[in-house]
Amino acid sequence: MGAYVAKRLLAAIPVLFGLSIIVFVIMALIPGDPALAILGSFATPENVAKLNQDLGLDKPMVQQYFIWLGNMLQGDFGRSYTLNRPVIDEVLERFSATLILAGPALVLCSIFGLLAGVISAVKQYSWADKGLTFTVLIGISMPSFWLGLLLIFSFAVKWRLFPPSGMYAIYGGGDLPDLIHHLTLPAITLAVVATGVIARLTRTSMLEVLRQDYIRTARAKGIKERRVIYVHAFKAAMVSVIPVIGIQAGFVLGGAVYIETVFQWPGIGSMLVKAISTRDLLLVQGGVLVVAAAYVLFNLLVDVIQSILDPRLR
Amino acid sequence: MSETTIETPTKKKKSGGRPSTLRLLLNNTLATAGLVVLAFVFVVALAAPLLPLVNPDVTEPANRLQPLFADGHLLGTDALGRDILSRLIWGTRVSLAVGVSATLIAAFIGSLIGLVAGYAGGRTDNLLMRGIDMIMAFPYILLALAIVAALGPGLLNALYAIAVVNIPFFARNIRGITVGLSRREFVDAARLSGKSNASILFGEILPNVLPVIIITMSTTIGWMILETAGLSFLGLGAQPPQADLGSMLGDGRKILFTAPHVSIIPGVMIFILVMSINLLGDGVRDVLDPRLKSGALARPVMRTAVMRDQVPDIAPQEDATLDMQGLKTEFHVGSDVYKAVGGVDLKVRQGECLGLVGESGSGKSVTAMSIMGLVPTPPGRIVGGAALLEGEDLFSKSDEEIRLLRGLAVSHVFQDPLSTLHPLFTIGDQLVEAIRAHQVISHKDAMARAEELLKTVRIPNPAERLKVYPHELSGGMRQRVCIAMALANDVKLIIADEPTTALDVTVQAQVLSLLNKLRQERNVGILFITHDFGVVSTMCDRIAVMYGGKIVETGTTEEILSSPAHPYTEKLIACVPVLGEPDRRLDAIEGRPPVVNALPDGCAFAERCPYAKDDCRKGDLALTDLGEGRTVRCLYPVSGDKAKQGECDV
Ligand code: SF4
């Protein structure tokens, strides 16, 4: 087990390197003078020249990359010119807000996705199955930002059950109930698509597993059908569902970009959108790198959970 | 599923080619609905310049924020007084163009990478796929954002970004198929005939991966339309005055509270578009990928359906543990009916081993699995006959009664012990479960009992073995575990379905002698299903030979082995002279067993029988009694002198 975790950790290192290279290459795509792009259009020529030197932009590409990487590894992501504060501070602050949103969304979509998938599979071809399958299809076809608007319009504007935006109430907020109150609508919106994907996959893999020889064996032993389905089949189906939950975490993190914009959630997604439109490229770069690295680490965790479930992987 | 020879109906229809593919698609109501809606949207979008629409960009401040159904503005106007209907149609046009182009770009580059990686293999493959993995390591939309950030906001840049992040889906799927294809004979043949790599790749392999490319396109195009709309919604895609559905939605968002229709309408359009694509895509996938066809994924219920026209009235016999009479089991696939078992009588006495012998496709496994209702339903169903277990008809019992008998009175040992044991539970857990399904004892006592069981089947270090998982044991050990599981309770009958076929010869002999010894010690009846006469001779007291879903000969093992009466039995014996010699197996008989949805008139074996005469092909043949418990279903049974003395057509 320990050896397996160590192996996965080691395997994550080249992936993290790869990420950094891709981000570096993308930033190198920026047309024109990068230092000018980074500092914005009001930069003085002296500042541009200084930044060019700081970033090592007068040196060859490979060398530039390692200087850049060295800075990153020391936590130096540069300074945001629009906010005039270190990129890393802003990114971490925003990212924690995103996690507060994405975490519950991921839990929601896992629970409801598994539930819907299992019910569909167990009651295959019933009305419940058809209804769920169709609902799921609606869920994955819906633009999440539009769903967010619909929810705001009905639950926040019409019925005034939930606040339309933000993370805390401006006056007298800040405690946990207030947070949950603000969190409900965006978390549900964020979870919808992923719920659909997980439900679909759970249904398919439950059906797949229920045809396996070991399910026949379980039935031949005379154990209760409920146990056959919810213990034997479900556990085996989870082997193919869990990696997909890992992938969905990526979609939830990405989807946060829309949802945070719609609900004005002060997370990294809305930060990125703003940074892109103000051309604050160091902020974009830092945000993308941190989220991507977190995603890699999360998938590492998923792999470990997977190996606990499936002894054949250890 | 069963070993019965079943030609799947999908195969037959698929060979018909393209028109039938479309027909299959149209059979699916939802897919058809998707196709119709999508076609309508496409036509309207394409015809936009011809339609009598107001210029979508003409502002009319006096008429701003008109509601739905306003005069001259069916869907109202937006914040600048522009006609929403006109903007919607023109915006749909842009969204569709962007989504389709992004899909084509991603499909082209991704498929190319996949083809080259899969075909070249080795270092090229490794390098390309590592690169793809890197792209996949990003959360999907985040990478697109980074690309847009670098290139700058704009519809074209959004298009590129979305295409890039979708490349991996194509590359991975296409590579997987290509790897398999490039090892196939037709590729080797093309290579030997001196074709260049490029012409093999695009001439031979590409046509075969096309369905996968189409399937992947059908899954990704919906996302791509959604994501490009999303980027526009964020203000990173279409820039004014150009508008797509996403940017219309984004504009309308600011006035959501006062004029919700301005943002809701383009959202509805995106939803309709993506939903119809998904419905159609699901249909396309079902047609192109038969494995996913809903019928093929039907979930077997806990017990075979029993649908007998009448319940036969059978007098129980004193000495029989199992007395099966007139069993008929069928598979209903679509409108086809496969009569896998067409009226089978079997009797197993206490402590007796009955060998049920036949080729694959003869219906022997279906017969055996019918007893405790383990034939998968759908598509299987028992349509006639009765199976008496100690005088009581199993087919009349309730599901719960059957469950309580499974593993308690009748247990099973199956063919491949790797697939029949649950891979995620330890041996101990699985044994304990079998014990506690029928006995009320504590987990600890059950563990002790499980350890004993492992000792009974002579597994060394039983205490440690309880903690291991099936994949950590050898094939022989696994089958011993299965036998131990079959003995977990005080069973009267063991149904062993080819229990040694998956094992190698020495292990086979060990497992057989173990089963035999346990049978004698515990006086358990065994129904032993096999295709191997060598195995039969060491195990069984009596033999029943099956062909085409019917018993063709019965008798004691010695008699049948020394003087087979049915020409089929004769051939079977001739083909397997040595225990476990793998090259001379039953399936070495010339010809194939009949397909059970088209059984011939008269003797089912006539096609392959060396003694066949004209009258063999007429009417139903009865099982004739030869005396002393021997029966045969043949008009011209082989007698000792005329026997050809076993020629095996290898
Ligand atoms: S009935 Fe005729 S065809 Fe059939 S096995 Fe006997 S001899 Fe052969």
Defining traits:
heterodimer, A: about 325 residues, mainly alpha, MetI-like fold, B: about 650 residues, alpha/beta, 5-stranded mixed β-sheet, 22 helices, about 45% helix, about 15% strand, elongated, disordered N terminus, binds iron/sulfur cluster, ATP-binding (chain B), nucleotide-binding (chain B), Oligopep_ABC_C (chain B), cell inner membrane (chain B), translocase (chain B)
Describe the fold and architecture.
The complex is a heterodimer of chains A (314) and B (650). Chain A has helices at residues 2-28, 34-39, 45-54, 61-73, 87-122, 127-141, 144-158, 176-210, 213-220, 225-263, 268-277, 281-309; strands at residues 79-80, 85-86. Chain A is mostly helical and 314 residues long. Chain A has one domain (88-313): MetI-like fold (Orthogonal Bundle). In chain A, strand 1 (79-80) and strand 2 (85-86) form a beta hairpin. Chain B is α/β, with parallel strands linked by helices and 650 residues long. Chain B has 22 helices and 13 strands. Chain B has helices spanning 9-14, 18-27, 29-46, 84-120, 122-136, 140-151, 155-181, 185-192, 197-233, 245-253, 261-288, 364-371, 399-405, 417-420, 427-436, 443-456, 462-465, 475-486, 505-522, 533-539, 557-562, 567-575, and strands at residues 305-306, 320-333, 336-349, 353-357, 380-389, 392-393, 410-413, 493-497, 525-530, 542-547, 550-556, 624-627, 630-632. In chain B, strand 10 and strand 11 (550-556) form a beta hairpin. In chain B, helix 4 packs antiparallel against helix 9. The radius of gyration of chain B is 33 Å and the shape is elongated. Classes of the chains: A mainly alpha (314), B alpha/beta (650). Chains A and B meet through helix 1, helix 6, helix 7, helix 8 and helix 9 of A and helix 5, helix 6, helix 9, helix 10 and helix 11 of B. Bound molecules: iron/sulfur cluster. Residues 566-567, 603, 605-606, 609, 611-612, 616, 621, 634-636 of chain B line the site of iron/sulfur cluster. Chain B: Keywords: ATP-binding, Cell inner membrane, Cell membrane, Membrane, Nucleotide-binding, Translocase, Transmembrane, Transmembrane helix, Transport. Chain B: Residues 322-573 form the ABC transporter domain. Chain B: It is a peripheral membrane protein; Multi-pass membrane protein. Chain B: It is found in: Cell inner membrane; Cell membrane.
